[in-house]
Amino acid sequence: MDYIKLSKTMSYALRHAPWEYELEMDEGGWVSIIQLLHSLQEEQKWSDVKAENIYYVAKTSDKGRFEIADSKIRALYGHSIPLRIIKAPGEPPQLLYHGTSRQEADAIMANGLEPRGRQYVHMAVDPKMALQVGKRRDNKPVLLTIKAREARQDGVAFYKGNDLVWLAEFVVAKYIDIEEKN
To answer: Which InterPro entries match (predicted)?
Structure first.
C-alpha cells in the first residue's frame, strides 16, 4: 500500500473535490469513513484499500491533516471548497512562521497575510517547516515571523490546526517581520 499516495488522494477528496468522490459532507466537513472507503474502492488503483488503511493514514499523517471521530473523518485544514471548518479560537505561541516566495513577500509586508484561495492563512510553529512549505513556490523562500501573541492581544483570532500549524483568517502586516531572505 502506497500510504503517501493514499494520503494525497484522501486530502484531495476531503479538501478540494468531495463531489468527484460523491461524498456527503455535513456542515463540519465530516464524512462517513465507510462512504470514503467505498468511494476510494471504486477507483481501480484503490480497489484493495481497507478501512484500517484510512485509519493508518489519518493517525500517521506527518502534518496531522485528518481527524477521526464516531466513524467519521474530516480534513482539518487546507480546504478550497466553500465549506468552513469551524474552529474555536486559541492562544497561539509567541511567534509563528510563514514561508513564502520572494515575489509575494513585498505584497504581504504591504497588505498582510491573506488566505489566497484557502479558508485560512497557515502558519508553522517551526521556522524550518515554514521554509519547507515556502520551497513549494520558490527555491529560495522568504521566512516571515508573525508576532502571534501580540496580534491575538489586539483581537486577531488564531485557531489551532494541529500541533505544528496555526490558522488565522487574516494577519495585519504590522505583526509580520521578514526574518530571513535566502
So the answer is: Ptrans_KptA/Tpt1 (IPR002745), RNA_2'-PTrans_C (IPR042081), RNA_2'-PTrans_KptA (IPR022928), RNA_2'-PTrans_N (IPR042080)
- C-beta separation of 31 from 24 below 8 A: yes
Same-domain pairing of 102 and 129: yes
Residue ranges for the chain with pLDDT beneath 50: none
For the segment 144-174, what is each residue's pLDDT rounded down to a tens digit? 999 999 999 999 999 887 778 898 999 999 9
Residues 128 and 159 in one domain: yes
Residue with cell 502534518: 63
Give the CATH number, domain containing residue 34.
1.10.10.970
Q: Is residue 52 packed enough to be buried (19+ CB in 10 Å), middle (13-18) or exposed (0-12)?
A: exposed
For 148-159, give one letter per residue: b (16+ CB within 10 A) or e.
bbebbeeebebb
Query: Is residue 83, in this structure, part of any structural domain at all?
Result: no
Please write the tens of the pLDDT for every residue from 96-118: 999 999 989 999 999 999 987 66
Q: Which domain holds residue 126?
A: 90-181
Question: Same structural domain for residues 25 and 100?
Answer: no
The total of structural domains in the chain comes to 2
Nearest to 75 by CA among 28, 115, 126: 28
